[in-house]
């Protein structure tokens, strides 16, 4: 599709991902409107002039949600002539990364060319961006779900635990745990812990804000699992 480079224009940015099956075939799936934050940077001949559309929480820049798809609006864009390109940056929540975010970049050309002459006579354009398939990121619709596991050492007993990760210890005499801040994304998050109480019952310390369904009494020789959701703690143990 050709457009005069001086014109304002808009189009649907259709996001898709390709899933490879065990038999070697690929299946393309529509991603729709991403639930995570993202930044789409557009340019033509070079990145001296770029145009940005983005979603950061509830703040949208140069775009809107068009029935579950990204509708980008190019107003006074100042882009030069050439094939329109995009670098789509996804900020996917994944608790195994220290900052809680997995950054993914996908630069590629689009089926739009900005030209000096007249453009094509066309209605609303729709262009596709193919994103990588993200396996194992918890909570992403249409993708494999799983809970990341972090194994802690015997000396790592004073920890700010992050949500949506199973924190696992072996035998520990004491655990002093604080709850790292939950992502402000409107989703439900869970703090999960597993540890072994050895010959001496483990001393477990948690913030006073945690309210127990049943106040725990640690016993020796048991493996415990702890869950905290919305400030309510549940713990149970089984014999080794």
Descriptive keywords:
six-stranded mixed β-sheet, 2 domains, 240 residues, 20 strands, mainly beta
Describe this structure in words.
This protein has 240 residues and is mostly beta strands. It folds into two domains: 2-131; 149-239. It contains no helices and 20 strands. It has strands at 2-4, 9-20, 26-30, 37-43, 51-56, 59-61, 63-65, 70-74, 82-93, 101-115, 125-131, 149-151, 158-161, 166-171, 174-179, 190-197, 203-205, 211-212, 222-229, 232-239. Strands 1-10-9-4-5-6 form a six-stranded mixed sheet, with no helix packed on it. A six-stranded mixed sheet has the order 12-14-16-19-20-18, with no helix packed on it. A hairpin with a 4-residue loop joins strand 7 and strand 8.
Topology:
Layout (H helix, E strand, L loop, with lengths): L1 E3 L4 E12 L5 E5 L6 E7 L7 E6 L2 E3 L1 E3 L4 E5 L7 E12 L7 E15 L9 E7 L17 E3 L6 E4 L4 E6 L2 E6 L10 E8 L5 E3 L5 E2 L9 E8 L2 E8 L1
Parallel strand pairs: 1-10, 2-11, 12-14, 13-15, 14-16, 15-17, 18-20
Antiparallel strand pairs: 2-3, 2-8, 4-5, 4-9, 5-6, 7-8, 9-10, 16-19, 19-20
């Amino acid at each position: 599709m050709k457009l005069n480079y001086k014109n304002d224009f808009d189009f649907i940015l259709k996001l898709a991902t390709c899933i490879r099956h065990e038999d070697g075939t690929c299946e393309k799936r529509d991603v729709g409107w991403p639930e995570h934050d993202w930044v789409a940077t557009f340019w033509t001949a070079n990145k001296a002039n770029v145009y940005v559309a983005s979603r950061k929480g509830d703040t949208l820049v140069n775009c809107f949600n068009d029935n579950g798809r990204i509708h980008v609006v190019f107003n006074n864009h100042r882009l030069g002539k050439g094939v329109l390109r995009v670098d789509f940056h996804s900020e996917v929540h994944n608790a195994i990364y220290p900052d809680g975010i997995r950054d993914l970049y996908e630069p590629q050309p689009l089926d739009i060319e900005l030209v000096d002459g007249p453009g094509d006579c066309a209605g609303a354009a729709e262009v596709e961006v193919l994103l990588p398939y993200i396996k194992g990121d918890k909570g992403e619709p249409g993708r494999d779900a799983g809970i990341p596991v972090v194994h802690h050492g015997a000396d790592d007993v004073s920890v700010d635990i992050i949500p949506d990760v199973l924190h696992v210890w072996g035998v520990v005499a004491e655990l002093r745990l604080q709850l790292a801040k939950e992502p402000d994304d409107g989703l439900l998050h869970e703090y999960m812990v597993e540890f072994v109480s050895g010959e001496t019952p483990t001393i477990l310390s948690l913030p006073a804000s945690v309210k127990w369904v049943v106040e725990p009494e640690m016993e020796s020789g048991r493996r415990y699992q702890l869950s905290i959701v919305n400030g309510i703690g549940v713990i149970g143990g089984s014999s080794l």
